[in-house]
Every structure is written in structure tokens, then in C-alpha cells.
Amino acid sequence: MVPRAMTSDAADGLRARISRQSEDALGRLAQELLESPFVNGAISRAFEAREKAAQAQEVAMGALNLPSAGDLERLTRRVRSVSQRLEGVEDALDRIDERVGAMGGAGSGVGSLEQRLAAIEGQLTAFAGQLAELASRLAAQPADPPVPDAPSPEAVAEAAVRVAPRPTRTRAAAARKRAAARRV
Q1: Which of 68, 76, 142, 167 is least surrounded by CB atoms within 10 angstroms?
Q2: What's the CA gap between 138 and 132, in Å, rounded?
Q3: CA distances from 12 to 15, 21, 24, 55, 107 (A)
Q4: How far apart are CA 176 and CA 170, in angstroms?
């Protein structure tokens, strides 16, 4: 009779050998499938069909005015960005609040701020009064009278058109020669 321990060792060895052989066979099968042009073509066509289906779905969703997965992803990124910026603004406001609180505890207080604002308001009121006075002075001054002997702008333009010399062929040729001489 064969002891029980030997039988289990032999069975474990047999299982390990069958497992290795099946793994090797599956590996060879997968390798051959990947190297097969027929399988490669089928896989690439499947991926192309998936891409076209995704594009068609996006177009259809757009036609129905519904957001696509890409739209939702972009919106999610934008919301995260806005959220981070808002946190930065909140932090800045907290720092400003702390500084204002520190100013109030340092003796300068809200009363001094109100005094400064009142002084600025008084200065602005004084400037407004001065501007109003200047405006009234300018309105009271008479406008410069027109010069009686001066020709109108239309007459000046018309005379300039009549007086301007017309270029002739000899003048144009001379001008081209002077330009060529300057270039050299």
C-alpha cells in the first residue's frame, strides 16, 4: 500500500505541472492571437467603432441639448477651479478681517477711520464746489468772435485741390531716378 502523504505530494505535483502547462498554452494562444493580422484588424475596427459611437452619442446629446460625459468632466474641473479660487478669496478676507481687528485693538479704532473718511468727504465737497465755480466762470465768458477775413475751411480745401500740381510723365520719371539713386 502507498502511504497517504506520498499520494498527496504526487497529486500536488501533478496539479502544478498541469497548471504550468495550461498557463504556457494560454500564453502561447494569447501571443498568437495578438500576432494574427485578422485579430489585430478586428480589435482596431472595434476600437474605431467605439470611437465613432462615442462621437455620434456626443452629437446626439448636443442636438438634444443634453450634456455629454466630456461636458460634465469639463464642468467638474471648472467647478473645482472656482472652488479653489473661492477658498483663496475667503482666506484673503479672513486675513483682512484680522488686520482690521488688530487695527481696532491697537488704539486707532473705528472712530479714527470714520474721521478720516469724513475728512476725505469734506475735501471732495470742497473740490466739487471749486469745479462748479470754474464751470460757471467758463460759461460766463464770451466765445472768441470769428475772424471776418478768414476763408472757410471748405474754401481752403477747394483752393488746395486747384493749386496742387499734377504729376507729368517727366516729373514721375525724374522722381523714380532720384529714388533709385538714393537706394544705391
Answers
A1: 142
A2: 10
A3: 5, 14, 18, 53, 88
A4: 10
> How many residues would you count in the chain?
184
| Dmax (CA) of the chain | 145
- The tens digit of pLDDT for each residue in 88-131 reads 999 999 999 888 888 766 555 566 788 889 999 999 999 999 98
CA–CA dist 127, 117 (Å, integer): 15
Cell readout for 157 is 480745401
Residue with cell 505530494: 9
Euclidean distance between the first and the last CA atom of the chain, given in angstroms as a whole number: 118
Query: How far apart, in Å, are the Cα atoms of 23 and each of 12, 36, 112?
Result: 16, 20, 85
Could you give the CA distance from residue 184 to residue 181 in angstroms, rounded to a whole number?
A: 5
- C-alpha distances in Å from residue 135, one per residue of 95, 108, 128, 144: 45, 40, 11, 17
Give the position of cell 539713386: 181
What are the domain boundaries of the chain? 12-66, 68-107, 109-139
Q: Which string of DSSP letters, residue by residue, matches 39-61? A: HHHHHHHHHHHHHHHHHHHHHHH
CA distance 133 to 155: 40
pLDDT score of 80 more than 90: yes
